[in-house]
Automatic annotation (TrEMBL):
PANTHER family: PSMA PROTEIN, PST FAMILY PREDICTED COLANIC ACID TRANSPORTER. It is a multi-pass membrane protein. Pfam families: Polysacc_synt_3. This is Membrane protein involved in the export of O-antigen and teichoic acid. It is found in: Cell membrane. Keywords: Cell membrane, Membrane, Transmembrane, Transmembrane helix.
Length: 425
């Protein structure tokens, strides 16, 4: 056991537990909001509201890219005794995030009329409202990355709870007042602003004007590696909802959106495991330590989360949704369980790719991206029913996990070689 792993284990376990609990609370709150929307809104309106969430999750790829880049380099710079360099990196990344947020907001708001036609929404205003929150959403991701890299998991956990509380409170209040999909989208944007404020207080970074300048060439190169994984996540996590929205009737798309919520809950609960493992692997790998036990433990945790969610969906999913949302949702136990099981396979594959990525390699990420593209092509060909969409995704995820496991068994982690990508010059 390395000195680093011994000294950080108590705080890692405690912080990781706090983060996992916060993720459960946050996902539960988001799920309650979606159940409320499903109960109050018509299936067509619910489909529009869920589209805004899907677009937000798609844009999350940019936020997660910034967060993971910050987490890895902050962890390595701090490990080498250069916290000022970490703060300077955070300042630079916040500038990038602000620019990307403004551009993304302009694309959403400026093209709102077009997006409304493409996705058959009742109004273009939700796209405008969502776009207004993008700068806040992307800037806060850098602060989350700093907390992740410095293993400040309680603060990171708090930011997720704040995001959920504001989203749930504003969303429920505005929809109850009659603002419908627009009100739900305002809740999303308000949660971005609140999270930005919370992270600004919790991250506690320095001014970032002193210290050695970060190696921005290495940072940009690593961002490209991260983008491969995140692009695969976007396609795998959201393509089915977009295909259903484009090819199903509004009511059928709304019912499928309810099923997809379960899968998203499984993935984001499992993501809490990857969030804890990622910076620890980066630090341990940088000091020459073995990281295999971290991957094994992470896979066990993700599998346990997925199994519990799948069993819960099978036993309770249909009756609970039928009671809360109405009889149209009452016979969904089987597809809910199948979707949760499929997403568990994807979450495990994602953890394996994230583990490798934290060490500066991304072969598994390319495999994940390739499988997500295969999934998308299959969905575009076979999309006649909910069952068909789920089966297609199951096939793609089984193939992905099989290839990744085979490759992992045939290779071993290479010894660490210091490079400019991770260590100061």
């Amino acid at each position: 056991m390395t000195k680093e792993s011994s000294s950080t284990r108590p705080s890692l376990v405690g912080g990781g537990t706090a983060l996992a609990v916060a993720m459960i609370v946050a996902n539960a709150g988001n799920y309650v909001l979606n159940l409320f929307l499903g109960r109050v809104l018509t299936p067509a309106e619910f489909s529009d509201a869920n589209l805004m969430v899907t677009l937000m999750l798609t844009i999350t790829s940019i936020a997660l890219c910034l967060q993971l880049v910050a987490a890895r380099f902050v962890g390595i710079y701090d490990e080498s005794g250069q916290p000022d360099r970490s703060d300077r990196l955070a300042r630079t990344l916040r500038g990038y995030a602000l620019g990307a947020g403004i551009l993304t907001g302009l694309v959403l708001a400026g093209g709102s009329a077009l997006w409304s036609q493409v996705f058959h929404t009742a109004s273009f205003w939700p796209f405008v409202i969502l776009g207004a929150g993008m700068p806040f959403y992307l800037v806060q991701s850098v602060g989350r990355g700093v907390m992740q890299g410095r293993l400040r998991f309680p603060g990171l956990a708090t930011s997720f709870v704040v995001e959920m509380v504001v989203r749930l409170g504003c969303g429920v209040a505005l929809v109850a007042l009659g603002f419908g999909v627009n009100g739900a989208t305002v809740g999303l944007t308000a949660s971005f602003v609140a999270t930005w404020l919370a992270v600004k207080l919790l991250a506690r970074t320095g001014p970032g004007r002193t210290g050695v300048a970060p190696d921005l060439v290495a940072v940009r190169g690593y961002a490209v590696l991260v983008s491969v994984l995140l692009l695969g996540q976007i396609i795998a996590n959201n393509s089915d909802v977009l295909v259903a929205k484009a090819f199903f009737s509004p009511d059928a798309a709304g019912i499928y959106a309810a099923i997809a919520l379960v899968g998203r809950a499984v993935f984001f609960l499992a993501w809490s495991v990857a969030t804890v493992v990622f910076p620890v692997v980066a630090r341990r790998h940088a000091s020459g330590g073995d990281t295999g036990s971290l991957l094994t433990g992470g896979i066990a945790a993700v599998a346990g989360i997925g199994a519990a969610c799948t069993l819960g969906a099978l036993l309770l999913g249909g009756p609970v949704l039928g009671f809360i949302l109405g009889p149209a949702y009452g016979d969904l136990a089987a597809p809910l369980a199948a979707y949760a099981g499929m997403t568990t396979l994807f979450a495990i594959a994602n953890l394996v790719a994230s583990h490798e990525l934290s060490q500066g390699r991304n072969t598994q990420s390319w495999l994940l991206l390739g499988a997500s593209l295969v999934q998308l092509m299959l969905l575009l060909v076979w999309h006649e029913s909910t069952a068909q969409l789920i089966i297609v995704q199951f096939v793609a995820m089984v193939l992905l996990l099989g290839v990744m496991v085979a490759r992992h068994l045939l290779t071993r982690s290479s010894p660490y070689i210091p490079t400019e990508e991770g260590l100061p010059r």
